[in-house]
Amino acid sequence: MIIGVPYEIKDGETRVAMTPNLCRRCVKLGATVLVQKGAGTSVGFTDAAYRAAGAKITATASKVWRGADLIVKVKEPQPSEFKYFRADLTLFTYLHLAACPDLTAALVKKKVLGIAYESVEGRDGFLPLLKPMSHIAGRLSIQTGAYFLQSQNGGSGVLLGGIPGTMPGRVAIVGAGNSGAHACRMAVGMGARVAILDLDARKLEMIDEEYRGGVVTLMANPGNIEMAVADCDLLIGAVLVPNAKAPTVVTSAMVKKMRPGSVIVDIAIDQGGCIASIHPTSHHEPTYVKHGVVHYAVPNMPALVGRTSTLGLTQVTEPYLVQMVTRGIKQALAEQPGLAKGINTQDGLVVNRQVARALSYK
Ligand SMILES: NC(=O)c1ccc[n+]([C@@H]2O[C@H](COP(=O)([O-])OP(=O)(O)OC[C@H]3O[C@@H](n4cnc5c(N)ncnc54)[C@H](O)[C@@H]3O)[C@@H](O)[C@H]2O)c1
């Protein structure tokens, strides 16, 4: 098997899909690994380190994509990469197709076998390849939000922790899953007053238990969301319906009631976003102001901490990759139903029900 590791070209991306250690393991198991020149440089993995691990360093993206059977990436392919798609190519990466109709059409047209990290399922239905990046995005959402609350960054000038004698900042988090729970942990750590909302009562019970009532937990019905949004300085969108377009849980009318200079960080933007007034931004232009509120919606937040994110991501992709190298892709998919759940496109079809529904495919 020939595995290709391209340089990530999404705006501001710093992660790489394979560390030199993982590369060494794949090579030992018999794979040839093509790493595009400079692919790991921004996170401290030099070409020399990959070479020492047995990789072949290739000068161009074209050589990596065209020379490999299996492309291992971090972010969804960008339009300039669609030209490399072909019928005998397997792609293992985040795809987020419900929010990417053009990418979906290109994968379907060229009959690429597209295995999406975010759809791979663990034994009890959890999403093992999404989890570490959600933890990172959740934690980052608070430090990013705190930064944009600063007066010089267009924010209202609220310090989340406050000081003795002043009110601390208020944080509202919609979604108490992996990203929401980690946002909660950071916000509490910074001394903010936190309210967290979810439709799943068990998630709220867990938060209540963990913080012994120190965090307000609320059922995510429209009345509670409206109240929490109007009351907060920093709003975090952290909902997920796996594979589907994110539901809009915060309306524009609710955003209009926020205090001027308040901040929204919509982590769920990679699935289309869960705030009505949101649209994707980038690391180069991370925010815009609408209804007097600062909106931040970068779909690849973990790139801000590329070293930690690369290590966090590759530690969970490693077992699947090893399985594909040792058993072959077809056999690995047959033997591991959880990995097979990751298939989003195959033989010119969209095979994930939620993606098909979101984009009106059969
Ligand atoms: N922007 C980024 O850089 C980045 C990075 C990592 C993850 N993400 C994204 O963050 C989102 C959340 O991921 P996660 O791992 O935390 O998901 P998760 O499944 O762990 O948690 C999502 C939570 O949303 C809740 N939920 C669903 N619908 C709801 C609704 N209508 N109202 C209230 N709560 C609702 C669920 O009950 C669940 O608890 C996903 O879209 C994921 O892809 C984005």
What attributes does this structure have?
single chain, 362 residues, alpha/beta, Rossmann fold, eight-stranded mixed β-sheet, seven-stranded mixed β-sheet, 13 helices, globular, binds nicotinamide-adenine-dinucleotide
Structure summarized in a few sentences:
By secondary structure, the protein is an alpha/beta fold.
Task: Describe the overall structure.
- The protein has helices spanning 20-28, 47-52, 61-67, 101-109, 131-149, 178-189, 201-211, 222-231, 252-256, 306-327, 329-335, 337-340, 353-359; strands spanning 2-5, 32-36, 56-58, 70-72, 90-93, 113-116, 170-174, 193-198, 216-219, 234-237, 263-266, 287-290, 293-296, 343-346, 349-350.
- The chain has 362 residues and is of the alpha/beta class.
- The strands form two sheets. An eight-stranded mixed β-sheet has the order 3-2-1-4-5-6-14-15, with helices on both faces. A seven-stranded mixed β-sheet has the order 9-8-7-10-11-13-12, sandwiched between helices.
- Helix 10 (306-327) packs across helix 11.
- The model has no long low-confidence stretch (mean pLDDT 97).
- Please bin the fraction of helical residues: 25-40%
**What order do the SSEs take from the amino end to the carboxyl end, as H and E?**
EHEHEHEEHEHEHEHEHEHEEEHHHEEH
What proportion of the residues form beta strands (DSSP E)? 15-25%
The whole-number mean of residue pLDDT values reads 97
Task: Give the overall form.
Answer: globular
Main-sheet strand order equals 3-2-1-4-5-6-14-15
* CATH level-1 class of the largest domain: Alpha Beta
Going by CATH, the architecture of the largest domain would be 3-Layer(aba) Sandwich
Unique bound compounds: nicotinamide-adenine-dinucleotide
- Structural class from helices and strands? alpha/beta
How many E strands? 15
| Distinct helical segment count | 13
Largest sheet: 8 strands, mixed
Number of domains: 2
- Could you please say which CATH topology of the largest domain applies here? Rossmann fold
**CATH homolog superfamily of the largest domain:** NAD(P)-binding Rossmann-like Domain
- Radius of gyration equals 21 Å
